[in-house]
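If you are new to this repository, start here. Below is one unmodified record pulled from the training split, so you can see the exact layout before writing a loader.
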Amino acid sequence: MASSSPARAGGSLEEDLAYYKAQYEQLESELQDFQQSSKELEAELEKDIEASEKRERQLKEKVEGLGYEVNEWQLLLMILGD
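And here is the target side for that same chain:
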C-alpha cells in the first residue's frame, strides 16, 4: 500500500510535488484498470443474464407443452376408464 506522505521528511517543494504527482498517476492508472475490468465483468454478466433468460423461456415453453400432454393423457384415461 502506498504511503500518503513523501518518502523523506524535509524534502524540497519540488520533491514533494514530484512524489504526489507520482502517487496521483499511480492511482489514476489503477482506477483506469479497475474501470476496464469492471466493464469487462459487466459485459460478461450481461451475457450470462441473457443466456439464463433464454434458457428460462425454453424451459417455460417445455413445461407448457408437457402440461398439454398431461391433460391429453388424463383425458384419454378418463375416456378409457368409462
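Two things worth knowing about this chain: The radius of gyration is 32 Å. The first helix runs from residue 13 to 81.
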